[in-house]
Structures are given as structure tokens and as C-alpha cells.
Amino acid sequence: MNRLPVLFILLLSVFLSGCVISAENGGLHKAGLLLPYTMDDQGWNSKGYQGILAIHSSMEVDVLYEENIRSKEAIHNAVKEFDAGGVNLIFGHGNIYADAFMELKDDYPDIHFVSFNGEVAGENVTSLHFQGYSMGFFAGMLASRMSETNAVGVIGAFDWQPEVEGFEDGARFERSDVDVHVGFVESWIDVEGALDIYETMRADNVDVYYPAGDGYHVAVIEQVKADDAYAIGYIADQLDLGESTVLTSTVQRVDTLYETVASQFNTGDLESGNRYYDFMEGVIAMGEFSADVPRDVKDWLTEYVEIYTETGKLPFEVEDKE
Prior knowledge:
Elements: H1 6-15, E1 30-34, H2 44-59, E2 62-66, H3 72-84, E3 89-92, H4 97-104, E4 112-116, E5 125-130, H5 132-146, E6 151-156, H6 162-174, E7 179-184, H7 191-203, E8 208-212, H8 217-226, E9 230-235, E10 246-252, H9 254-266, E11 273-277, E12 284-286, H10 295-311
Parallel strand pairs: 1-2, 1-3, 3-4, 4-5, 5-11, 6-7, 6-8, 8-9, 9-10
Antiparallel strand pairs: 10-12
Helix pairs in contact: 2-9, 5-6, 7-8
């Protein structure tokens, strides 16, 4: 198991400052985080790392984390170590942890297990679901509007991702005759596979891309930049990867959700089971827009996003389409 030394993590937590909400008199003792890959991927895993540090800085509790924890054995061993270290709230940063946590929850009744995008049930287990369809829908709308070749592409990790279907529907909502190209890497981290799909789409004249995979999205955007095309960022606000390349990003505010969950657990208000989050809860948002996006296009998309945030209605449910 590849993990950073616990002593280093505890020392790190000492030097990170902040004191917004103290957990001293509440139910949270220590928080732990399991990451499926490394924390420096500029995407999903980085967001998890930022989330656990946000808990430390806002609640003055020690936090521990381990990287590259994917196998059942590794998960079980890490939970055992966290338990021995006094952790009573564990985040598994991905859907791969849901089944393992379901197996472990009865063995550790004093720990509350939190995973993402999986199906769970039980008193001390919660799964947090990002509503990815809406993210993809707005990305597809913008891609379709900004495309000069009338060909856009989404490079998904897996076919179950709602962002992919959302992208297709959003692109066709905006322009019914748009050519939507869809490819699946079958991995979150296979950079070579994602770039192969990208080259295939590029040969088919795609000029706006949505790389919906946190382990390869940066590499794809860098190649899009080299080829003078457009991309839409995923998970994080990625305008800094290229202001003339990244039109905007579909952002998941994971650190905000981590703090919310930890605070709810600390006060005894964290609900078990499957919990769902979208634009309405302030957990999903659009990132900054590139200067290459015309003001009227930015205003057009922003208005639809605001309507959805206020009413829960996606553009195809709004009667008047401009």
C-alpha cells in the first residue's frame, strides 16, 4: 500500500491554520481520506485533498489521508489503521469505495463512512452524488454554440457517466444538426487512450472537446491548445490551462461539500444513505469564461444556468428557447 507516513500527515495538519468552526465539543474526532490515485492530478483527487484540508482548517481537527488505495485489501487495511488512529469520519473519494464501505460499516459502528456516486444503505454510511447530467448539458450547449465546424466531442471515462449523455443532449438542444462524437477511455487515468480518441475526433473535424475524465483531462486540454482548438474544463476551473483554449469549466466544489458533510457529522445531522447535489446546492457551478466567448454567448448560457439553479428546469424544460 502506497501511503504517506502518518507522522508526516499529522505534522502537516498542525501547520495548516484556520479556526472557523471548532469540532472540539462535537462528534468529529479525526477525519480520514482515501484517494484512488495521487493527490496532484489537478482534478478529482486534488479536489479530495483540498476537501480534507478544508476540514482541518475550518474545524481544527487532525486529518489523515492515503493515496493509491483501490483494492479491497488496501481499503480494509487503511480503514483498520484509521480506526486505530482515532478517525471516526472516513471519506472514500470515489464510487469504488461504496461496496467496500458497505462491507465494513458493521465492523466499525463508531465510524461514519462517506463515498461518492455509489449506492449505499445503513446507519453509518453515506454516498454523495454529483448530478453530472446538468454539467454535461451546459457544456454541450456551449460547445455546440462555439463550434465552427459543427462537430463537437466528449471524451468520457465510462459509459455510465451522466455528463456524457448530458453533453450529447445539450449540444443537440442548441443545434439539432450538430455532429456529436462520443468516445470512452474505460479508465480515469489512461492518458494515451484518451489522446488516441482525441486524434480520431480531430480527424473528424471536431473543434470543441469536453474531456470528462479527471486523470487525463489536462493532457487532452494541452493537446487541444497545441492544435488551436477549444476545450471545456472538467471538475476544476481550468481556465489557467489556456485562456484562449478553455472556454469555461464545469466545476464541482468538492471542498465545500467536504466541509458541509463534516460539519453535519459533527453536529449529528449527517444523513445516511444516498444524498444528491447539483447547482441548486451551490456544489456545482460554471467556471470563469474565456475572453474568446462573446459576451452575448456568455450571458445566454449564464441565464439558462441561473434559471436551472432557481427552478430546477433545464433548458429543454423552459418554454421559450432563444
